[in-house]
Write a structure and sequence with these properties.
Blueprint lengths: L7 E10 L19 E9 L7 E7 L4 H9 L10 H6 L1 H10 L1 H4 L6 H22 L3 H6 L3 H6 L12 H11 L3 H11 L1 E5 L9 H13 L4 E5 L4 H15 L4 E5 L6 H10 L5 E5 L7 H11 L3 E4 L6 H9 L5 E2 L8 H15 L12 H15 L9 E3 L13 E2 L2 E2 L13 H7 L5 H11 L1
Parallel strand pairs: 4-10, 5-6, 6-7, 7-8, 8-9
Antiparallel strand pairs: 1-2, 2-3, 4-12, 11-12
Helix pairs in contact: 1-5, 3-5, 5-15, 8-15, 9-16, 10-11, 12-13, 14-15
């Protein structure tokens, strides 16, 4: 008698928070006191192989409990599902989760519920890659183009990208894959660092970290701006003096400005040759971004870390509203929706430079950029992955950056697995760190 197929038996959730606000790590004009946090989940099965699917949504502290509750609300769609069928077709789960009519009302396809869907879908891809014995970038890069197209939801974007066009892009992208994979394994994928540029850092710390970034091989750094123009002028001058003329400096306003403010402020900083201005206004303001882009050239406009779905990305591209598209591995509906966004960017010829601040975002998004290089865009020209040197030690397979390049991860999966000891220590509010911290505050 044939044994029954393995099933998903549990979806365990955890509220994990790190006290990064104590050192102002991650601080910017809109978010002065972030505590980098993960609404974390583990998919468990009865397959007997010891493999689990790990995923998470990234938040910055308060509200992480709401995000955990949203993930838990998706549990009925997972428990009892066939592991083989799930891993063979993650898109089927994506469609079911997005299509839950009562939960969809809370979006649709945006906000807390959509981020929860992304966390769950990413956990399935993590499990699928582990079962295949491959890092996710390699599983995606070598996947059949027709199958990849089947994983994409073309609803609402078919006026800009048809399945036939997506298939043609993926088929063309396979040419030279083996040579590019050899180059990736030898050199890695270029990165840039935001570590010198947090708004709460002193000029001394900015200078020290900027010089260190250049010594470490980075050819681009990023500074947070938008709180005070005089401070920004001083900090840009300080940074330019530290890195010299041959290193790009991007600036990031984190949605701080109205459209006219974004234009005036960016032009006031133009003497320091910023490469791009990131999130100059609301991520939902497509036409505002287009207006800003026209007014501040040759400074480029970059956005995407808070863009809520493929439909808004479609409009940004159609409107000519951005020069640099910034995917986020945990903001939209997981790998499946990011495939759609990467395909849209390829169709419009816009470079993708992912957002990767936070906890675990570097670990995840490297896989998507490496897939894009190997099997879609075929280039790393004017493409870089953000790197922030925070909290990598909490992951089983942390990112490795050498000479300013992300080394291709070789551990099977999506690099999402967090150490159980880290979860036990930083689970909120009953983890060891937070119990001691709250006791110290009350004493």
């Amino acid at each position: 008698m044939t044994a029954p197929s393995a099933r998903i038996t549990a979806v365990d959730t955890f509220d994990v928070r790190f006290p990064t606000s104590r050192e102002l790590d991650g601080s910017d004009a809109m978010n002065p006191d972030p505590d980098y946090s993960a609404a974390y989940l583990v998919l468990r099965t009865d397959a007997g192989d010891g493999l689990e699917g790990h995923g998470f949504s990234f938040t910055i502290g308060r509200g992480n409990d709401v995000q955990v509750a949203a993930i838990a609300a998706l549990r009925p769609h997972l428990v009892g599902r066939s592991v083989d069928e799930l891993c063979a077709d993650p898109g089927s789960l994506s469609r079911d989760l997005v299509g839950d009519s009562q939960l969809r009302w809370l979006g649709p396809e945006k906000g807390v519920m959509h981020m929860a869907i992304g966390a769950v879908v990413n956990a399935v891809w993590d499990l699928a890659a582990k079962r295949a014995g491959q890092p996710l970038w390699r599983l995606l890069a070598h996947a059949d183009p027709e199958w990849l197209v089947s994983q994409v939801d073309f609803r609402y974007i078919a006026d800009a990208l048809t399945p036939e066009e997506a298939l043609a892009l993926l088929r063309a992208g396979r040419a030279g894959l083996a040579e590019r994979e050899a180059a990736l394994l030898e050199r890695g994928y270029p990165g840039y660092t935001t570590s010198p540029g947090w708004l709460g850092y002193s000029d001394e710390k900015l200078t020290r970290l900027a010089k260190q970034a250049v010594a470490d091989g980075f050819t681009q750094i990023k500074l947070k701006v938008g709180a005070d123009l005089d401070d920004d002028v001083r900090r840009l001058r300080t940074a330019r003096a530290a890195v010299g003329d041959g290193v790009r400096i991007a600036i990031d306003a984190n949605q701080r400005w109205n459209v006219d403010e974004a234009i005036a402020w960016t032009n006031a900083l133009a003497a320091f040759e910023p490469y791009w201005v990131e999130e100059p206004t609301s991520p939902d303001d497509v036409l505002g971004h287009a207006t800003i882009r026209e007014a501040i050239a040759p400074v480029k406009v970059a956005t995407g870390e808070h863009v809520q779905n493929r439909i808004v990305f479609k409009q940004l591209l159609q409107a000519g509203a951005l020069d640099v598209l910034q995917i986020d591995a945990a903001r939209v509906g997981g790998v499946n929706e990011n495939l759609a966004i990467l395909l849209l960017a390829a169709k419009f010829g816009v470079p993708v430079c992912p957002h990767a601040g936070g906890v675990g975002l570097c670990e995840l998004v490297q896989h998507l950029s490496m897939f894009d290089f190997l099997a879609l865009s075929g280039t790393t020209e004017n493409r870089v992955i953000e790197y922030v040197d925070h909290l990598h030690e909490h992951f089983d397979a942390p990112v490795v950056v050498r000479e300013g390049h992300y080394r291709a991860p070789l551990t099977p999966g999506f690099s999402a697995t967090m150490h159980p000891s880290s979860i036990a220590e930083y689970r909120y509010p009953d983890g060891a760190f937070w119990v001691a911290d709250l006791a110290g505050q009350s004493s």
